[in-house]
Design goal:
Blueprint lengths: L8 H17 L5 E5 L3 E2 L8 E9 L5 E3 L1 E2 L2 E2 L2 E6 L2 E6 L12 E3 L4 E8 L3 E10 L8 E4 L3 E3 L1
């Protein structure tokens, strides 16, 4: 059986509570995604469409964003039957540098998403506060439709 007992348990509990409060007040990144369009109509069926997007860090700490070359490397979610499903990853070639991009507070980086299949999508950008773990968290952008 496990339990907390002894004279020091209250001191440890207070220390733990203080650590949680301090963690909540710590600087943190706050990436967001903005899409260049909410509806894209391709010039002809099955033609490739491109949609510009911007990733911004609105937080007070740097974020390391998963990247392909000098651009963010978002995953794509697709709306299927009323719910979002992971659709495909970034598709970065193995010969391209996949080091994360450092996004300082207030900094913005842009990219272009391209695809040829009709549907409703949203981008998912992965980021972290440590360069070794750039996919520790993710943020999704607004939905957009490709017709």
């Amino acid at each position: 059986m496990y339990g907390i007992s002894g004279p020091g348990w209250l001191r440890h509990a207070r220390g733990l509570a203080l650590a949680f409060v301090a963690a909540g007040c710590a600087d943190s990144p706050d990436p967001s995604i903005e899409m260049g369009a909410s509806l894209v109509i391709r010039p002809k069926p099955d033609s490739m469409a491109t949609v510009p997007y911007t990733v911004s860090n609105r937080g007070s700490a740097a974020a390391y964003v998963a990247a392909c070359g000098q651009y963010p490397s978002p995953g794509t979610d697709r709306l299927v039957g009323g719910s979002w499903e992971a659709y495909f990853g970034s598709g970065c070639k193995g010969t391209v540098d996949m080091s994360p991009i450092l996004l300082a507070p207030g900094q913005t980086v842009s990219g272009i998403w391209a695809y040829d299949g009709a549907g409703t999508y949203r981008l998912r950008v992965y980021y972290g506060v440590d360069v070794k773990y750039p996919a520790a968290a993710s943020v999704v952008g607004p939905a957009f439709t490709l017709e």
